[in-house]
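Subgroup meeting minutes
Present: P.N., E.W., G.H.
Scribe: E.W.

1. P.N. recapped why we're keeping a running log of single-chain structure predictions: easier to compare across weeks, and new members can see raw inputs and outputs side by side.
2. G.H. added today's entry (429 aa).
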Amino acid sequence: MVTKIAARMLGESPKCFRMLVGLFVLLMLCDFIVRGIVPSLNSSKNDFSDPFVGSWLWIHGQNPYDGTLVEATARHLTHSMLPVVPIYPLTTYVLVAPFSALPWKWANFAWTTILAAAVGLISWTLVRIARFKTSDMRAWLLVALVFGFTPLHRAIHAENAAVIAVAPCLLAVHLADESRDLEAGLLLAIATGLKPQLGVWILIFYLIQRRWCLVATGFSGFATLLAVAFARIPLSLRSLFLYYRDDLHYWFGPGGPNDFTAVNPLRFQLVNIQVVFWQWFHAGLAANILAYALFIFGLLVWTWSVMRGRSCPPSLALTALLALSFLSIYHSVTDVGILVLGFCWVLGTADGQLKRTKISVFLLLLGLSLPTHSLLLRLEPHLSYSATSSWWWTGIVAPSFIWNMLLLNLVLIWAIARGSRFTDERHFT
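Output recorded in log:
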């Protein structure tokens, strides 16, 4: 259904459709190069600064969470006066260690190039997961949607590790579909080492599916990375935790970059639902309680529906679980890139019972692909204080991306619950 609508909009001819999609992908590649790779040649501070400096300190047997030491090292390596406060887990520094052997500019350039290549790998993997042939217009549309997905763009521009984590996550899903559990588990160990808040949910999904070899490989691989990481640090676990707690306070404390209250002017760039709840109730505890209650309720419904509906498509079940993880736990917008997996279900085999639901998911995913944050940041300085401090701006307009995420969660859970009901009815009849 979605493909037919797109074909009508872009042209009835398959050749014309592919040419237009190919042109779109080419434009997105140019965007990656001009706004991602080229600036990396002269960049002195970006999201890669943290893992680069942290991995350099880890290789040299020093504490990557010591703020004073990190600041001095960052100035020496990147020649930047901007603050670097490490927040990544030690496993990230182990995996990024090869880059720290290079000078900053070359490491930065190599990192950005790999980020851009990861988007291509994501496209190829999703086409394989959806089992589309290259002659299928849905494959071309899927590639276009990936290259146009704004969270992936933001990750490229900020040089965030999210894209490099998303690629092995999705490749592991493809390998799991091919019953290659050992390789899938190793990839998930790497992805979890880079971004635990992404990889761990996929491991939980396969744990529920009782894919014991895959799960054991994933968790043991991550544990190995963690053991290697601790072995290099000349500090006790307690001392290391105290340093890390100070870094967490910088990021999540009052006024920190990840604080969801009004003290943080950048709170609307977060994804978790606490931002909205705080705007309505002005109480941090209430916002947390409501957010976690909503997450737990959604997780219970998800678990019940997946266990009940054995034929639930993995791409739908995984997308719903990953989307749930964004509700109450901190994520940056760059992490949302993993939800491109949802396009596999939307464009996949037709399901007459869920046709309208698929269209709703498609539109909500397109909503996540809009440059909402950039538009609001440019618009806000031109508005009066009475407008930007009003309830409709702070409660609805500014957190529109978060509302989009909430609606996407509701529709995905509805799709799984409804799909499990149809499965039960078929078994009953």
